[in-house]
Amino acid sequence: MKPTSLSLLDRLRAADPDASDWDRLHDVYLPLLRRWLGRVPGLGAEADDLAQEVFAVVAREIPRFDRRREGSFRAWLRCVAVNRVRTYQKRRRRFPIAGLDPSAGFLESLADPDGELAREWDREHDQFVFQKLLGIVRPDFAAATWEAFRRFALEGRPAAEVAAGLGQTENAVLQAKSRILRRLRAEAGDFLG
Hints:
Layout: H1 8-13, H2 19-38, H3 46-61, H4 72-92, H5 104-111, H6 116-137, H7 143-154, H8 159-166, H9 170-188
InterPro entries: RNA_pol_sigma-70-like, RNA_pol_sigma-70_dom, RNA_pol_sigma70_r2, RNA_pol_sigma_r2
Keywords: DNA-binding, Sigma factor, Transcription, Transcription regulation
Pfam family, one: Sigma70_r2
């Protein structure tokens, strides 16, 4: 297991971030951004290019990102995505005709932090990133430890039942959950919540 005292986001904000940290951020977020940008009416195939533009903005601006509350990063990323779509649309249409933008309502709803679409972004973000983080930390644990965690923490089975089914003690099941959650928190940092 690779211990880490800084979250991925903190490492990226450092003066000279490691390329593997950027790769990890890219691997975690690119599919989510592609999916969301693919929902923007009228955007079509440009969603992939815009997802890369979002990453360019993140790379440039992340040293100045300031986490002020739970969920700050996901809200910031959502705003960056909305703004990149708006900038793209302005570039694409030199003289936009008012009222003919099929994505206007979608973008306004996504930009509104209290809107249903923003809440859907938050829910989907957390689920998506959590699943990606599970995949990242999974190789760091023995199969028996992971299985105890999966059954107890993810499926919600009672510790005694999991212990009996795996031939472990209840304490081993509880420790598996604790160790993996600690590792997930260290890796996730500001991404979840």
